[in-house]
Design brief:
This protein is of the alpha/beta class. It has helices at residues 11-24, 36-46, 61-71, 86-94, 107-118, 126-138, 150-157, 162-172, 177-184, 188-202, 207-214; strands at 2-7, 27-33, 50-53, 76-81, 99-102, 123-124. Helix 2 packs parallel to helix 3 (61-71), helix 8 crosses helix 10 (188-202) and helix 9 packs across helix 10.
Length: 223
């Protein structure tokens, strides 16, 4: 049983979410709260495996995310929010969120996403990632900092094998691991292995940063 902590300042939503996850099997709700302060206190006392965190709440969800990750680096923290803003998504990923899920997601998809995150995967809603990538592609490019010139990016991409390059292209199009496995005629676990190698070679944290890196976005640059 995985221990989940739910932090959201809307009590009706929070209780409904707790009931849904409890009934799904495999999850134990070890605490509920409504503020950044409560998130830290409950994380210390309840020892959760995963924290579901809203962005808009007293004390700030992003501040809570940053504090949780600094204090417990191995803790999986997932943002569950109504915001579909690019800035909120990228700020959350940079702060160490293991997932960014938009409220309104169906229960089966939410449960599948959380189980994947608990296995060590990351998650961003494909539709949101695709929309952000589309907007990024049509926006004027920002000047690259000295540490991330186009030549640097090209050299890093040359480290990828042809198969890894194919997987990265499909990820940038918003495809899930399951869809990539079906299209490329390989096992889903093989896709996950390729993604792990891609992230290591490009010095990135998750598939969204990898997709943005391919499009030349500064948000996906290696440090």
């Amino acid at each position: 049983m995985s221990r989940l902590l739910i932090i959201d300042d809307h009590p009706i939503f929070r209780r409904g979410l707790a009931a849904t996850l409890s009934e799904a099997g495999g999850f134990t709700i070890c605490g509920e709260g409504a503020s950044a302060e409560t998130a830290l206190a409950l994380a210390a006392s309840a020892a959760p495996d995963l924290v579901l965190l809203d962005l808009s709440m007293p004390g700030g969800g992003l501040a809570a995310l940053t504090a949780l990750r600094e204090r417990w680096p191995a803790l999986r923290v997932v943002i569950l929010t109504a915001s579909e803003q690019r800035e909120d998504l990228m700020d959350s990923l940079r702060a160490g969120a293991a997932g960014y899920i938009v409220k309104g997601i169906g229960s089966p998809a939410l449960i599948e996403a959380l189980r994947g995150i608990l296995r060590g995967e990351s998650y961003v809603a494909p539709a949101l990632a695709a929309r952000i990538l589309s907007a990024s592609a049509s926006a004027p490019a920002e000047p690259a900092p000295p540490s991330q010139t186009l030549n640097d990016a090209a050299k890093m991409l040359q480290q990828l094998t042809p198969r890894e390059g194919e997987v990265l292209q499909l990820v940038a199009s918003g495809w899930s691991n399951k869809e990539i496995a079906r299209e490329a005629k390989m096992q889903e676990k093989t896709v996950k292995h390729h993604m792990t190698r891609i992230l290591q070679k490009l010095k990135l944290r998750n598939r969204t940063e990898a997709a943005l890196f391919l499009r030349g976005e500064n948000g996906g640059r290696p440090e």
